[in-house]
Design a protein that fits this description.
heterodimer; A: mainly alpha; MetI-like fold; B: mainly alpha
């Protein structure tokens, strides 16, 4: 058993590059999904019916489709429309589009729960709509939605492991290659599990830091 | 894509639904058991459950599944794809269910518990008659939510060779060189199941909110 972990240690470069890819993939797609979510949320709450319906259809649709199938469709299905993407691009695209729907729904919920007074006060002070959003709505929205966004971030990290099926060299894929090369399944995969755990604990620590900041602001 | 291909995907759907149901049905009571261990602050076991839940919540199902499927035979436990799939689903969903049950237990009003004690109910009776009916009600939306999450991760089971919806679709896509149609059929099968559970969750929440408003 110790020898197995020794083998994993000797392959640490592979594992660490897998961890780096998982981290990069998760951080990039979380940031992009959050940004897209911010663009979708006003559409979800729009008074123009067709726009609100289209946004609602996209968000509910994504929430009913398993991520792995969506990733398959982006990677294997898009070429049918003449769009051929490499595994990195399709993985990043699939993660981003899929999670944008979840982020939009999270932000909509937090937005609807915001007290109207600060916004009205902002309008009374003559903030432009963009200034109002950036200075008044955005900070309190992010603080209120922080914990749920953190949960979604953990979901994104876990979803990124599915991308091993399109041969994206992330953490699970690295563990798989080590296992098939040396036949040390337990050591390889349990190390990956501990690394995922570590990543998620970092996210949780970040969320509780934001929570303390939100508490201090109140 | 021919009619027999569609039938193959439908057969896969039976496997997917069966495995999901088995996972849910075993995962629910195990989650409750884990939650009770933590709630009761059982020495040694409670901290182990806490670590287990924290770790399992962070572990992608693919990684867990590959770990079980390849590592168990390594230590002399033979496991076929179906058994590995069920074990992985149960280990995963029990951790999430544990958190839902535990939240309900933590919010359980203490006075009711003491009232039950004062009329001489024994621990098992207290739990079955007073605690359980109420925490089931409170936990229901969270548990249904977890069920829809579980169904959404089942395509992963295809990785170890379970012939479910996804594996059938992948095979047909590879044979016909047209991957899009079988994947769209697969989505058309998954989406209504998940949509039903999501709607069920919303309906339960709305009904409970209405009942609370009336009370």
């Amino acid at each position: 058993m110790i020898r197995d972990f020794g083998i994993v240690w000797s392959e640490r470069d592979l594992l660490l590059s897998g961890l780096a890819n998982t981290t990069i993939l998760s951080v990039l797609s979380a940031a992009a999904a959050l940004l897209l979510g911010f663009m979708l949320t006003p559409a979800l709450m729009s008074k123009r019916r067709p726009l609100a319906w289209a946004a609602r259809g996209f968000v509910d649709g994504m929430r009913c489709v398993p991520f792995l199938l969506f990733a398959y469709i982006v990677y294997y299905g898009f070429p049918s429309f003449g769009v051929r993407l490499d595994n990195w691009t399709s993985g990043l695209l699939a993660l981003t589009i899929y999670n944008a729907a979840y982020m939009a729904e999270i932000l909509r919920g937090a937005w609807a729960a915001q007290p109207p007074e600060p916004i009205e006060a902002g309008i009374a002070f003559g903030f432009s709509s963009f200034g109002l959003f950036r200075r008044i709505i955005l900070p309190s929205l992010l603080l209120a939605a922080g914990p749920v966004i953190g949960n979604q971030m953990i979901q994104i990290i876990k979803d990124s492991a599915f991308l091993t099926i399109i041969a994206l060299p992330e953490l699970t894929h690295a563990a798989s290659s080590i296992q098939s090369r040396h036949y040390v399944p337990f050591a390889a995969f349990i190390t990956a599990v501990f690394l995922y755990w570590g990543l998620c604990l970092v996210v949780e620590a970040g969320v509780s830091w934001i929570g303390r900041r939100a508490e201090a602001r109140r | 894509m021919t009619a027999s291909d569609i039938i193959a995907i439908l057969q896969g759907a039976v496997v997917t639904v069966t495995l999901s149901l088995v996972g849910i049905l075993i995962g629910l009571p195990i989650g409750l058991g884990l939650a009770l261990l933590r709630w009761g602050n059982v020495p040694v076991l409670a901290p182990i459950v806490a670590v287990y839940v924290s770790m399992l919540r962070a572990t992608p199902l693919v990684t867990l599944l590959l770990l079980l499927f390849f590592a168990l035979p390594n230590i002399g436990i033979e496991i076929d794809p179906i058994a590995a799939a069920i074990l992985a689903l149960v280990m995963n969903t029990a951790a999430f269910n544990c958190e839902v049950w535990r939240a309900a237990l933590m919010n359980f009003p203490k006075d009711q518990f003491e009232a039950a004690q004062s009329v001489g109910m024994r621990a098992a009776q207290r739990f079955r008659r007073i605690v359980l009916p109420q925490i089931v009600r409170v936990s229901l939306p969270g548990l249904v939510n977890e069920m829809s999450l579980l169904i959404k991760v089942t395509p992963v089971l295809a990785v170890v060779g379970v012939v479910d919806i996804t594996r059938a679709a992948v095979r047909i896509g590879a044979e016909t060189y047209e991957p899009l149609p079988p994947f769209l059929v697969a989505v058309a099968l998954y989406a209504p199941i998940v949509f039903f559970l999501v709607s069920l969750q919303r309906w339960i929440e709305r009904r409970q909110a209405a009942a609370e408003a009336a009370a």
